[in-house]
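> example.struct
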């Protein structure tokens, strides 16, 4: 699970802009933001760099049960 949507909203950045920066389709970025699909590690690092955040900010920690 990722927090891409939350980070985008917090920074006031549109998914369309992120898609353009990444050279990806809006549908692909939207599927990341909606957690229908998870980005590759390479894409996750690229997103973090573009949004100027740490990669860990884009991830939801898994808690041990």
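> example.seq
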């Amino acid at each position: 699970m990722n927090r891409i949507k939350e980070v985008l909203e917090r920074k006031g950045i549109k998914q369309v802009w992120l898609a353009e920066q990444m050279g990806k389709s809006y549908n692909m970025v939207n599927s990341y933001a909606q957690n229908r699909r998870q980005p590759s590690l390479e894409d996750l690092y690229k997103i973090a760099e573009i949004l100027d955040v740490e990669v860990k900010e884009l991830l939801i920690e898994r808690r041990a049960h």
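> remarks
Helices lie at 4-11, 15-22, 26-33, 41-51.
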